[in-house]
Specification:
Chain B: Its cofactor is Mg(2+); Mn(2+). Chain A is mainly α. Chain A has helices at about 1-20, 20-45, 50-75, 90-110. The termini of chain B are far apart.
Chain lengths: ~110, ~750
Amino acid sequence: AANWDEVLQNICQYYMKETPQRTKLVDVFLVFLAAVGALQFVYCILAGNYPFNAFLSGFCATVGQFVLTVSLRIQTSEANKSDFPAVSPERAFADFIVCSLILHFFCINFIN
Amino acid sequence: MTGDSQPLAAGVNSQSTRLLLRVVILSLIAAAAVASRLFSVIRFESIIHEFDPWFNFRATKYLVANGFYKFWDWFDDRTWHPLGRVTGGTLYPGLMVTSGVIYHALRALTIPVDIRNICVLLAPAFSGLTAYASYLLTNEMTTSPSAGLLAAAFMGIAPGYISRSVAGSYDNEAIAIFLLVFTFYLWIKALKLGSMLWGALCALFYGYMVASWGGYAFITCLLPLHAFVLICMGRYSTRLYVSYTTWYALGTLASMQIPFVGFLPVKTSEHMPALGIFGFLQLIGFIQYVRSAISGRQFQTFLATVLIGTFGIGLLGLVALTSLGYIAPWSGRFYSLWDTGYAKIHIPIIASVSEHQPPAWPAFFFDLNMLIWLFPAGIYLCYQDLRDEHVFVIVYGLFGSYFAGVMVRLMLTLTPIVCVAGAIAVSHLLDTYLSTKKPTNPEGAPAASEATSKKAAKSTGLRGSEKPKVGIFSLVPKTGVVASLTIYLLMFVTHCTWVTSNAYSSPSVVLASRMPDGSQHIIDDYREAYQWLRQNTKEDAKIMSWWDYGYQIGGMADRPTLVDNNTWNNTHIATVGKAMSSREEVSYPIMRQHEVDYVLVVFGGLLGYSGDDINKFLWMVRIAEGIWPDEVKERDFFTARGEYRVDSEATDTMKNSLMYKMSYYNYASMFPPGQAADRVRGVRLPDQGPVLNTLEEAFTSENWIIRIYKVKDLDNVGRDHAAAAAFERGQKKKKAAKKRGARVLRVD
């Protein structure tokens, strides 16, 4: 158990020290998305899933936006630069916007 | 062939000539792909073939006539007579919408083309696109300049694909194979670049594919499998994360927009691998992040706890949800791919379709010719430099061949990968043997063919100190191999053309036969009968027939039917099966209850047309027996020795069944006494044909292939039909029976 604490502490320290400001901003958005998704899920469990398409589109919107944002975060962080020779940060942001627009179009269409 | 034009390109060897050649070759391939599919249009006429395309055609006409919104919620009250069909929610609209868009686009360009011609020629047009898509896909797999062109050429003319995409075959597969190949191309591209945009494009085309064909489940299972294999090989990369999650998040939402699919992507087991890998990737992404954060020792603790915990919970959750019924188990059609005996025992309606049977070996050679033996070689070459996209070829090849081995119909999904792998193999051979490069030794002195190398050996003095050049530098083996490959390629073209021309280009609506002098004789009984129905019956006369002909009746005769090829209600089909296989006294109330006006049977006894209803009869019996095991028994239709006979030895149940009576009614009168013969079953029939009481013959086509009967109304004076018909025939007893029959009390 003591080992565990150490691990968590190390992760926290690493995160605070190594992450640039912009990426932290992205992470705040990620936390917000996760919170919204969890809230929706809890509400669905408590109140039932009657308009199932509404639940699904709301939940999928958060999940989809979450993974898209994570993708943006991956593509813009320095450590992964070698993985994406073809994707500049600006290009990553443009891709992110296009994908988010598609995602929102589908969600709004699906929520009826 | 394209392989031969490659050295020419090398000879001229400038970027623009190569590009020009590529464009020319691809256009020629597209032209060949279109041209080889036109046999049936040129030989017969421009009509829709087979059964399913007739429904697609009818739906497309509805779409063009009424607009998109009406099509989207179209309730079709002219099929499944008492029930109707919510067509908008039970079909894949991609095909119809595509041809509708083409129709309107052509009109906007002031080229008004009949919608029928667009439907007929849609499949050839898309086959050109498929060839181009496989060109793109293969170019991603290899650096060889010729592989893509070869794959395009193979894909353009391979009979395995032509069989489902000849002109007039207006079926979902017509556009679905293009979308399949193109989606795979986009997936490979997204995976290589790790780009969200390509992932989103892949998801969009996946959505289009979902809108077009039920075979999209193949993609939903293959992409996660590819990702899973990559992870297991230790090839997880952030590119994989980006491309897969983008594809899944957008693609799942896109697929849920189709009403027929609806909530299936979150509720059925077919889609669970994709979801599972999606979750798994999140986990792995997180673990990878943590790995960079902390030291190795601490990471191990972390990994063990998190991985085991999450994986166990996920798996348990999936099992629990499935067993509790929140997630539907595999559907019968999909399940029968794994348990190949399942359909035959439990769902006869799936087993009764001929294309759901496993193929024999010759089918593979017939459909793919030399590609089938180049396919393993191509897979082997993929193993040699195993990059991420090669894993895809291998995974696809394995699964595609398994599925094609289980079901004839899935040869179609195997064909693209066979073409790709075959092209990789052929281009590898050609690149090796066509290269005119001479090897240069380390000093840079030219030492190529035997003569020059000898000179070089002399100049350096010591022969042993020189490294031997490994490779084939002589012209003779080179020309030999290239020539034999060329011969194979030419033979491939001949084979494909022959197969297409002879096996796959016959519209089943029109039967063609040859006269003794070689001229063609067309047997057009189907359309004759359907036209009769269209012109001589009430607008809403209900036609009862076996489900095979439902779409054609709806499409050509334009009359309501009871059952059709969309076999969504098994009980209703069993009802028709029961009516066909029971005695008249049982069938008549069934037909009255369903307001049947005409009954249509297909009978090939006169012409030797083997696909008739008597040969399908046992399936009707089996399907009816599944619902009413007490009333219809398959055993009763066999003789004591277990034979299925239609001649005088036939069982009483067989002779009294409605199908038998309708097929052979008045048939003996065609022949001189004692000569009545059934040319399909090859038996002699009794002179005394069956007697029909509740039906009357309304129409019989020229060659007796289609027979239509009218259901009689109730008797005017309330007798049952047997008594009334006996009275009509004058079979009343001469002496009035004095004896009083057993009477029952009249109840008022």
